C-alpha cells in the first residue's frame, strides 16, 4: 500500500465520524483508514483494529497539515462549533491544510440549502463550500438534512407510556435521515468513483408526527395519539417551527442513489429506537 492510498476522516470520535470509520472498515483494509480527532486517547479501540489515529484540531492548522498527509480521500466532517464566523474559519483552516499537503480529494458534510443560502444555519456551510470550490481540490459535497436520531430516540418510550406524542409541526412532513445512512453514503463516496465535482442533496423518507403516533401504536399495541401543541421554546421547538413552515419537506433521490437502496423507513427506525436501552 502506498501512503497516498489513505482515506482520512476528521471528527472520527464524534457520532457521525465514528460511524463513517465503521463503514469504511467494511469496505477497505484497516491500514488504509486514518481517524483524526482532537483527543486520540478516545480512539484506542480503533488502534487495536489496525486503524491509524492522528491528532487534528480545527483550531490548530499545523496539526491538520500533519494529520492530512498521505490522503487520497479526506472526509471533512463539519465542526460542532455554533458560531458561524468561527466555524467558517475552522473549515477554511482545514481546506487550506488539505491543499497544502495535496490531498487527493475532499468530501465535506454540508447542509441542505448551503449551495444557495448564505444566512443562518447554512452560513458557515455556504462559506465552506465556496472555499472548497476555490481551493482547486477535487471535491464532493454531501448536504445533510437534520438527523432522525434527534427525533426518534429512546425517549419515545415515554410517549408510549403517556399515550401520546406532541408536536407543533402542523402535521407537516420532515425529511430527516439516520446518521448511519448518511455515514454509509459518505463511505460510498470515499471508496467509489464518479462522485467528484458533485453536490448531493441527501434526504430521508418524509414522515409526520401523526404517522409516528400510528407507528408507535402498531409496534407496541398501546394506543398512542398525536396532539398538536403551541410552539415551544428551545431547539426542538425551533425545528418544529421549520417543519410547520414546510421547510423540511424537500425530497430528492440522492441518498437512495448513493446507498443503492431506500433509506431506513420510519417504522424500522422507531422499532430500533424503542429497542435501545433507555439512558
List the helices and strands and how they pair.
Blueprint: E1 6-9, H1 15-25, E2 33-37, H2 44-48, E3 52-55, H3 61-68, E4 71-76, H4 84-100, E5 106-111, H5 123-135, E6 139-144, H6 156-162, E7 164-167, H7 179-191, E8 198-201, H8 209-220, E9 225-228, H9 235-244, H10 254-259, H11 266-275
Parallel strand pairs: 1-2, 1-4, 2-3, 4-5, 5-6, 6-8, 7-9
Helix pairs in contact: 1-7, 3-4, 4-5, 8-11
Concise account of the structure shown:
By secondary structure, the chain is of the alpha/beta class. It has helices at residues 15-25, 44-48, 61-68, 84-100, 123-135, 156-162, 179-191, 209-220, 235-244, 254-259, 266-275, and strands at residues 6-9, 33-37, 52-55, 71-76, 106-111, 139-144, 164-167, 198-201, 225-228.
Keywords:
279 residues, alpha/beta, 7-stranded parallel β-sheet, 11 helices, 9 strands
Word description of this protein:
This protein has 279 residues and is of the alpha/beta class. It is 40% helix and 15% strand. The protein contains 11 helices and 9 strands. The strands form 2 sheets. The chain has a 7-stranded parallel beta sheet, with helices on both faces. A two-stranded parallel ribbon has the order 7-9. Helix 1 crosses helix 7. The longest helix has 17 residues, at 84-100. The mean pLDDT is 95.
Strand order of the largest sheet: 3-2-1-4-5-6-8
Q: What is the arithmetic mean of pLDDT?
A: 95
- Strand-and-helix sequence, N→C? EHEHEHEHEHEHEHEHEHHH
Structural class: alpha/beta
Strand residues, percent? 15-25%
Binned, the helix content reads 40-55%
Quick one: how many beta strands? 9
Envelope shape: globular
Unreliable segments (pLDDT under 50, ≥5 consecutive)? none
From the alpha-carbon coordinates, what is the Rg to the nearest angstrom? 20 Å
Number of helices: 11
- Distance between termini? 43 Å
Sheet with most strands: 7 strands, parallel
Amino acid at each position: 500500500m502506498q501512503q497516498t492510498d489513505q482515506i482520512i476522516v476528521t471528527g472520527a470520535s464524534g457520532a457521525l465520524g465514528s460511524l463513517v470509520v465503521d463503514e469504511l472498515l467494511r469496505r477497505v483494509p484497516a491500514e488504509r483508514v486514518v481517524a483524526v480527532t482532537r483527543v486520540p486517547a478516545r480512539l484506542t479501540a480503533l488502534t487495536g483494529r489496525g486503524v491509524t489515529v492522528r491528532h487534528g484540531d480545527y483550531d490548530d492548522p499545523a496539526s491538520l497539515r500533519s494529520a492530512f498527509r498521505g490522503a487520497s480521500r479526506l472526509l471533512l466532517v463539519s465542526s460542532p462549533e455554533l458560531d458561524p464566523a468561527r466555524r467558517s474559519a475552522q473549515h477554511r483552516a482545514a481546506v487550506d491544510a488539505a491543499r497544502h499537503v495535496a490531498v487527493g480529494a475532499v468530501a465535506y458534510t454540508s447542509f441542505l440549502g448551503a449551495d444557495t443560502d448564505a444566512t443562518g444555519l447554512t452560513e458557515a456551510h455556504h462559506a465552506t463550500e465556496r472555499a472548497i470550490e476555490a481551493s482547486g481540490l477535487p471535491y464532493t459535497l454531501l448536504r445533510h438534512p437534520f438527523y432522525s436520531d434527534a427525533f426518534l430516540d429512546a425517549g419515545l418510550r415515554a410517549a408510549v407510556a403517556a399515550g401520546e406524542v406532541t408536536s407543533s409541526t402542523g402535521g407537516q412532513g420532515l425529511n430527516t435521515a439516520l446518521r448511519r445512512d448518511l455515514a454509509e453514503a459518505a463511505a460510498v463516496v470515499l471508496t467509489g468513483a464518479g462522485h467528484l465535482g458533485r453536490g448531493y442533496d441527501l434526504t430521508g423518507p418524509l414522515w409526520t408526527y401523526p404517522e409516528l403516533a400510528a407507528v408507535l401504536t402498531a409496534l407496541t399495541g398501546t394506543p398512542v395519539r398525536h396532539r398538536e401543541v403551541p410552539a415551544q421554546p428551545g431547539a426542538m421547538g425551533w425545528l418544529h417551527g421549520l417543519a410547520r413552515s414546510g421547510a423540511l419537506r424537500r425530497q430528492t433521490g440522492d441518498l437512495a442513489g448513493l446507498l443503492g437502496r431506500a433509506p431506513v423507513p420510519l417504522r424500522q427506525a422507531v422499532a430500533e429506537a424503542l429497542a435501545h436501552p433507555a439512558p
